[in-house]
Write a structure and sequence with these properties.
Bound molecules: flavin-adenine dinucleotide
GO molecular function: FAD binding; monooxygenase activity
Distance between the termini: 43 Å
Keywords: FAD, Flavoprotein, Monooxygenase, Oxidoreductase
Number of domains: 2
CATH topology of the largest domain: FAD/NAD(P)-binding domain
Family: Belongs to the paxM FAD-dependent monooxygenase family.
Structural class: alpha/beta
Cofactor: FAD
Radius of gyration: 22 Å
Number of helices: 15
CATH superfamily of the largest domain: FAD/NAD(P)-binding domain
Mean pLDDT: 86
InterPro entries: FAD-bd, FAD-dep_Monooxygenase_BioMet, FAD/NAD-bd_sf
């Protein structure tokens, strides 16, 4: 079996809270960089919920160091072609692979075909979990973090079951409802409703192909490749996709309920195909017959109406004494249609582990601050997640070179020293992991929604 090359031991101990994509990848990358790591998760066992998400090219770079996981990641991911349609199903163009206008290294404009790996969340989690098991790190389930704390030389996390764990650092990778705000910002930045929700589901393809019309309208491509249709209309868009083993559909729509619980699980309610038909009849006046047929292939209890939550961006992810750091959705939220949440969590993991390795055991707080500085710029620029619910094609535009070609590990190695100088002496430092020419302006969700309401274009 191909071997993972582990770096020299650093003597650093790390605790990761949260066994999602961000947490597991952090545990893997920390282990690889010679850090002793433990990982805790509140659920009782691995969670298989969820449907599809995207892993962008920048995150795929993490697998270069994990040969077995890389092979499985390639084998389990889906390569989609996409066609675009009006909300009544009328064809606009496609199917086409995800091709984007971008720039090459010489700065010339070119059209590239960028492979974005689409993954069924449950399969991707399994790939990561298997890798974790292979290196001998086991997730400690049934540990719900309730409090993060720190001293000058230790980070502490307390769990609901009374267990208290200390380490050189604690990584809060506990998702959008993280309990780490008290120690990081001293004030909670609550996740709130974006005003949109998604009816979403994924199930074995046999349920869908049992209806001959659904089978023929949503075929695999002649090459056997997975095929998705995007139907776009005012204030809503729909994805219907078919792979060799999974059929999936989702409908992003405006939601009116003020309810916004703060966990992935708590943000959705079970619903039925009849609810979706009723919704379309109410908003569009009718529901196309083929959609009614698609909805009706959904197995019982497989459909959820998932509220999209977001938080105002906040630049600080590291606690005052530099012992606790937020990572992934705990640090920054992305709406699902931006296709960026899992990708950014993986990039965070690569950056954090590299900074810790460079800084060493005696410089953990500074390493966390450098990581925060190196990563923050990129996230601040991803304002596209504000408009994708309205204009999902914005995701295409956002795959510019600076974004997809980024190597978070190499970036940390190359920029750690300069970022450190900046933090210690105030020497000038400018991140380069941002759209060329872009000048950051602080923003918040209310501002974004007001612009959207007034029809003012939102900068991507
Ligand atoms: C069950 C589930 C299903 C998902 N399905 C989809 C999907 O279909 N499409 C999509 O785009 N995105 C989905 N996501 C979100 C997506 O995985 C994340 O946006 C992205 O991968 C970033 O990962 P993360 O590790 O930062 O956060 P998450 O993936 O949300 O992981 C956070 C982890 O922390 C755990 N946790 C939370 N609070 C605590 C606590 N107090 N103590 C200990 N552990 C805690 C959670 O159980 C979870 O395992 C899903 C997330 C989850 C948890």
């Amino acid at each position: 079996m191909p071997h993972v090359q582990r770096h020299h031991g650093t003597g650093i101990t790390a605790v990761v809270v949260g066994g999602g994509v961000g947490g597991i990848m952090t545990a893997l990358e920390c282990w690889r960089k010679g850090i002793q790591v433990r990982i805790f998760e509140r659920s009782l066992k691995p969670e298989t919920e969820g449907d599809f998400f995207s892993i962008g090219p920048s995150a795929c770079k993490a697998f270069e160091h994990w040969p077995v996981a890389k092979e499985e990641h390639e084998a389990t991911s889906y390569d989609f072609c996409l066609s675009y349609h009006k909300q009544n199903g009328e064809h606009i163009y496609g199917p086409v692979p995800l091709a984007v206008t971008t720039t090459n290294e010489a700065g010339e404009t070119t059209t590239n075909t960028i492979r974005v790996h689409r993954h069924l969340r449950s399969k991707f989690q399994k790939v990561l979990l298997k890798q974790l098991t292979e290196i001998g790190v086991a997730i400690e389930y049934n540990h719900r973090a309730v409090k993060y704390d720190e001293t000058n030389d230790k980070a502490i996390v307390e769990f609901e079951n009374g267990v208290r764990v200390e380490a050189d650092l604690v990584v809060a990778a506990d998702g959008v409802g993280t309990k780490s705000f008290e120690v990081v910002t001293r004030k909670e930045v609550r996740a709130r409703s974006s005003g949109y929700a998604i009816y979403r589901t994924a199930y074995p393809v046999e349920f869908a192909t049992a209806d001959p019309e659904v089978d023929s309208k949503f075929p695999l491509l002649p090459s056997g490749q997975s095929y998705a249709q995007m139907w776009v209309g005012p204030d809503m868009h729909m994805f219907i996709s078919r792979t060799e083993d999974i059929f999936s559909w989702s409908l992003t729509h405006k939601e009116t309920s003020a309810d916004s619980a703060e966990t992935w699980y708590g943000t959705h309610s079970k619903c039925t195909p009849a609810d979706v038909v009723q919704f379309l009849e109410k908003t569009l006046g009718s529901c196309p017959d083929i959609l009614r047929k698609v909805f009706n292939t959904t197995p019982e209890d497989h459909l959820v109406d998932w509220k999209i939550l977001w938080r105002d961006p906040q630049p600080l992810w590291t606690s005052r004494k530099g012992r606790v750091v937020q990572l992934g959705d705990a640090a920054h939220t992305f709406v699902p249609s931006s296709g960026n949440g899992a990708t950014q969590a993986i990039e965070d993991a690569m950056s954090l582990a590299s900074c810790l390795e460079i800084g060493g055991k005696s410089n953990v707080p500074m390493a966390l601050r450098v990581h925060n500085l190196l990563r923050n710029q990129a996230h601040r620029h991803h304002t596209n997640w504000g408009l994708v619910a309205q204009n999902p094609q914005a995701i295409k535009e956002s795959y510019d070179r600076w974004l997809w070609a980024h190597d978070a590990e190499q970036y940390a190695y190359e920029n750690y020293g300069k970022a450190l100088q900046h933090l210690i002496t105030g020497a000038p430092f400018k991140n380069t992991n941002a759209a060329p020419g872009y000048v950051y302006r602080a923003w918040n969700i209310d501002e974004l929604l007001a612009k959207q309401e007034a029809g003012i274009p939102i900068e991507v």
